[in-house]
Design a protein that fits this description.
Number of strands: 18
Order of helices and strands: EEEEEEEEEEEEEEEHEHHEE
Helix content: 10-25%
Oligomer: single chain
Structural class: mainly beta
CATH class of the largest domain: Mainly Alpha
Strand content: 35-45%
Radius of gyration: 26 Å
Largest sheet: 5 strands, antiparallel
Distance between the termini: 69 Å
Number of domains: 4
CATH architecture of the largest domain: Orthogonal Bundle
Length: 275
C-alpha cells in the first residue's frame, strides 16, 4: 500500500506537458512535476518519490527528500506564522503546518521546535509539538542497559526529555547529564531503568557493576600516577570530572564509593588519598 508522507518507488504511467503521472496504487494517479522528472525518464520506469499534498491540497510527488516523514519527529525551524498556525521548514517547497491547536506553547517565527509529523483526520500532513499525544511514555519492551537513539526534545527541573528510538518518551535526570545538551540534539544513550509505572529513565553512560569496576581501576591508576593524591573529590564540579574521566559525577561518586568500601582510598573534604 502506498502511504501519504512516505517514500515509495512508483511506476511511470504517462507523460504530460507538465510532468509525468505515476501509479499511486490505492492513492490513484499522482503527478510528478516536470522539474522533478529525472532525465531520460520514460513510461514504465520506476521513480523514487516522496508523496505529499501541494498548496491546493492535491496529491503530488517529488524526488526531493524531506527532513522528516510521517511517523517521525525532527527539530525544525518556524518559517512563518499566519492565521491558521505555524509553518515549519521541512525541506520541501510547501512548508509543514503546525495548527495552533497542536502547539504545546505558542510558536515563534525563526525559532526551532521538535515536532511530530502525522496525517490528520482531513488527510493532511501536519505536525504537532504535543509529543505525548503521539509517543508513549510507558514501555513494555525496553530493557535496562539497552542501547537506544535519543532526540532531546525538552527540559525540566528534573532533567531532559528525549524521544527514544522515535517511538517513546524518556527522561535523563540532571545527575546523569555529563555534558551540555541542547534541544534537537541527536545522540546515543541507554535505558537506565524502567520504573514501576513503566516510565523510562535514560542515561548517557550505563553505570552497571562492570562499568563501575572499570572506572574504579582507572581512578586507582590516576591516583598512582599523581603520587597517591587527587584534588578531584566527590564534591568537585561535574565538568572537571568529565574533563578527566569522561563520566558523569554520579558515576564517579559510585566508583569512589567502591574504592572506599574496599579501603583502597581515603576521602577527605578537599582531596582523595591512596591508602
Amino acid at each position: 500500500m502506498i502511504e501519504l508522507g512516505k517514500i515509495s518507488h512508483l511506476r511511470v504511467l504517462k507523460t504530460v506537458p507538465h510532468g509525468v503521472y505515476l501509479d499511486g496504487d490505492n492513492l490513484g494517479e499522482i503527478l510528478l512535476p516536470t522539474r522533478y522528472v529525472p532525465n531520460g525518464c520514460e513510461v514504465d520506469d520506476s521513480v523514487k518519490v516522496f508523496i505529499y499534498r501541494d498548496s491546493s491540497d492535491l496529491l503530488i510527488a517529488t524526488t526531493e527528500t524531506p527532513k522528516v516523514m510521517v511517523g517521525e519527529a525532527a527539530h525544525l525551524k518556524v518559517s512563518q506564522i499566519n492565521k491558521i498556525g505555524a509553518f515549519l521548514d521541512w525541506g520541501l517547497m510547501k512548508d509543514l503546518l503546525v495548527p495552533f491547536s497542536e502547539q504545546s506553547k505558542p510558536m515563534e517565527e525563526g525559532k526551532y521546535y521538535v515536532a511530530y509529523v502525522y496525517v490528520d483526520n482531513s488527510d493532511r500532513i501536519v505536525a504537532s509539538t504535543k509529543l505525548s499525544n503521539f509517543l508513549s511514555e510507558e514501555s513494555f519492551y525496553f530493557k535496562p542497559k539497552q542501547a537506544v537513539n535519543m532526540l532531546i526534545c525538552g527540559r525540566s527541573d528534573m532533567g531532559y526529555k528525549a524521544i527514544v528510538n522515535g517511538t517513546h518518551l524518556g527522561l535523563i535526570f540532571k545527575d546523569e547529564v555529563i555534558r551540555p545538551l541542547r534541544l534537537g540534539q541527536e545522540l546515543k544513550g541507554y535505558i537506565k531503568n524502567i520504573r514501576e509505572d513503566k516510565r523510562i529513565d535514560l542515561c548517557l553512560q550505563f553505570n552497571g557493576q562492570e562499568a563501575r569496576d572499570e572506572l574504579s581501576e582507572i581512578i586507582l591508576k590516576d591516583l598512582q600516577a599523581s603520587g597517591g593524591v587527587s584534588t578531584l573529590t566527590d564534591k568537585s564540579d561535574p565538568k572537571d570530572i568529565f574533563a578527566r574521566f569522561k563520566v558523569s559525577k554520579s558515576n564517579y561518586k559510585r566508583a569512589l564509593g567502591v574504592l572506599y568500601k574496599q579501603k583502597l582510598i581515603v576521602i577527605e573534604k578537599h582531596q582523595i588519598t591512596l591508602v
